[in-house]
Amino acid sequence: MKRALKTWARGRAGALAAAVPAGAAERLRHALDDAPEGSRRAALQTQALGFVRLRGLPPDLGRFDVDGVTMEASGSAVVERLYWMGHQGWEPELAAWWPRACSLSTKVVEVGANVGYLTLLGARANPEAEYVAVEPHPAAATALRRNLAINDVGNVKVVEAAVVADDSERVGLRVPPADRHAVPRSAYLDHPNRLRDWRDTVDVEAVRLQDLAAGAGAILLDAEGWEWSLLDGMTDDLARTHPMLFVCVSRVLAEDRRLLLELLASGYLAFAPDAGTLTALDQRELLRRLVRAPRLTRLVLATAEQLAALVQSRSHSLSRLAGPPPSSGVEPEPGA
């Protein structure tokens, strides 16, 4: 019954969005380009476009440009969000900092590349880096390869496999029933952090993170609840080499908190990223925001030296850490 109500509501919202005249929808989309970044006007327009995007992509659209890269108009919620909402449509907090981490690394690993938006931003930031993009779903991996080819990016190795925490050679990849797109926004392995409801299962190859990440200077993990389990299998390597870690955070279990504290004890510092700032989190605030509002959904772990390089790559100096204005460099957590 609950699923049926959600399906009905989603269909009704899509029908209402489709009723918006195409010309009006496009004018609203282009108006977002003129809105000052971070302004109330931009926020309101982004919210409105979040509704308009439910109409889908224009039927005659082949490709479009966003944030300096070209995306193929594939059947994907990620692509729809990027088309209608620009760089605010998909992972703006990661898009602001991941390319900078890539520019500082000779090798990077991205787990959960999907159609390749962050991949293109990262590869463009450092064309000389060895870039490993991992995407398990076949349709998403195909779209990823096409977007790399469209943008003439040649330094990215696509690994079409699921990253696992054990020695499995093949696993079943599940697609949520709510995802109506040919290229799903997310697909996951069975895990306590995830509902066990799916519309289909795809059999895919499996690889271990430690087999991919040797020598990596930056690792981005979007593994639909498996992030901490994957890191748990390489704690010794992480404590020794300290690659910058960009982690998409789901609900965190007790054993995950233990691992996180071990990483902090090994020399990592924790930050909450957004489009303009890295907010420093002490241990208490970090653990609080893992379970209470405002919930932490994206986390950056880096050493003090890496932090200095990230800030400098953004043309800011560490002298501003004591009290930078909003949207510039690194902010201390209020009360820290």
Task: Please characterize this protein's 3D structure.
Helices cover 39% and strands 20% of the residues. With 336 residues, the chain is of the alpha/beta class. It has a nine-stranded mixed sheet. Strands 6-8-7 form a three-stranded mixed sheet. Strands 1-2 form a two-stranded antiparallel sheet. Helix 2 packs antiparallel against helix 3.
Task: Please give a handful of descriptors for the protein shown.
336 residues; alpha/beta; nine-stranded mixed sheet; three-stranded mixed sheet; 14 strands; globular
Q: State the separation between the terminal residues, measured CA to CA.
A: 46 Å
Kindly state the percentage of residues in helix. 25-40%
Shape by Cα distribution: globular
Low-pLDDT regions: 315-329
Overall pLDDT metric? 83
| Percent strand | 15-25%
The number of distinct helices, counting runs of at least 4 residues, comes to: 14
- Number of DSSP strand runs: 14
Provide the gyration radius in Å.
20 Å
Biggest sheet, open or closed, and with what strands and sense? Answer: 9 strands, mixed
Order of helices and strands: HHHEEHHHEHEHEEEEHEHHEHEEHEHE
Strand order of the largest sheet: 5-4-3-9-10-13-11-12-14
Q: From the helix content, strand content and strand pairing, which structural class follows?
A: alpha/beta
